UniProtKB/TrEMBL annotation:
This is Proteasome maturation protein-like. It holds the Pfam family UMP1. Coiled coil: none annotated. One of its GO terms (biological process) is proteasome assembly. One of its GO terms (cellular component) is cytoplasm. The keyword Chaperone applies. Belongs to the POMP/UMP1 family.
Length: 142
C-alpha cells in the first residue's frame, strides 16, 4: 500500500518543465537549473568547427580515398592520449598541429587559466604523483 501511494505521489508531483533550455523537472514539483548551459555563440562556434572538420574529411576522402580521414582521426586519437606527469600542464601541441589550431589564439588561451589563479593552492608534482599512485605516509611519520 505504501509503495503504491509513494509512486502515485511521485507521478502526481512530477511536473513538466517549462520550455526553457537547462531547466529540469524533479519529483515533487521542484525545478533544477542545469549548470552546463552554454552561450548561443559558443554553440554556433562549436558547430562551425565540427562542420568544417566534416567538410575537410569529405574532401580528403574524395581526393585521396577513405583511408585518409580515418588515418588522420587515428593520429588525433594517438596524440591526444599523451600527458605529462601530474602537476605539469599538458600542452597537446601535436594535437593542435594536427587540428590546425596551433596558430589560432582562442579565448581559452588567455582567459581563466588555472595556472595563473592566485586563489588555488599550489600542489607540488611529488604530492600529486603520490596521490595518483596511492602512496601514503605511514601513520608514525605524520
Amino acid at each position: 500500500m505504501e509503495v503504491a501511494s509513494a509512486k502515485t505521489r511521485v507521478e502526481a508531483g512530477a511536473q513538466k518543465a517549462p520550455a526553457q533550455v537547462g531547466v529540469e523537472a524533479r519529483p515533487f514539483g521542484s525545478y533544477v537549473m542545469d549548470a552546463t548551459v552554454v552561450h548561443p555563440v559558443q554553440r554556433i562556434e562549436h558547430m562551425s568547427e565540427r562542420q568544417a572538420r566534416e567538410t575537410r574529411d569529405a574532401a580528403l576522402a574524395d581526393l585521396y580515398g577513405i583511408h585518409m580521414p580515418m588515418r588522420m582521426e587515428m593520429e588525433r586519437q594517438i596524440v591526444s592520449q599523451f600527458h605529462r606527469l601530474p602537476g605539469l600542464p599538458s600542452s597537446h601541441l601535436a594535437l593542435e598541429f594536427l587540428n590546425n589550431t596551433d596558430l589560432k589564439i582562442d579565448f581559452a588561451d588567455y582567459m581563466n587559466l588555472p595556472s595563473e589563479r592566485p586563489d588555488l593552492p599550489v600542489i607540488g608534482m611529488h604530492e600529486q604523483m603520490e596521490k595518483a599512485i596511492g602512496m601514503r605516509m605511514p601513520s608514525e611519520f605524520r
